[in-house]
């Protein structure tokens, strides 16, 4: 899929923000973000 067709990207990297730039942010419900895999992660 080509990036220009991307509607939303939610990597769930400690939040439910849409990182595509389209502001389709989510609302976390019943979610517990935990773990350390986010350490050193950079949004492409």
Query: Roughly what percent helix?
Result: under 10%
Shape: flat
Overall pLDDT score: 79
Tally of DSSP helical segments: 0
* N/C terminus separation: 16 Å
Describe the structure concisely.
0% of the residues lie in helices and 0% in strands. It has 44 residues and is mostly loops. It has one domain (1-34).
Features:
44 residues, 0% helix, little secondary structure
Describe this structure in words.
The protein has one domain (1-34). The two termini are 16 Å apart. The protein is low in regular secondary structure and 44 residues long. Helix content is 0%, strand content 0%. The chain has no helices and no strands.
Topology summary:
Blueprint: no helix or strand
């Amino acid at each position: 899929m080509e990036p220009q067709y991307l509607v939303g990207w939610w990597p769930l990297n400690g939040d439910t923000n849409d990182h595509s730039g389209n502001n389709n942010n989510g609302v976390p419900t019943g979610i517990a973000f935990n773990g350390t895999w986010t350490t050193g992660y950079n949004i492409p």
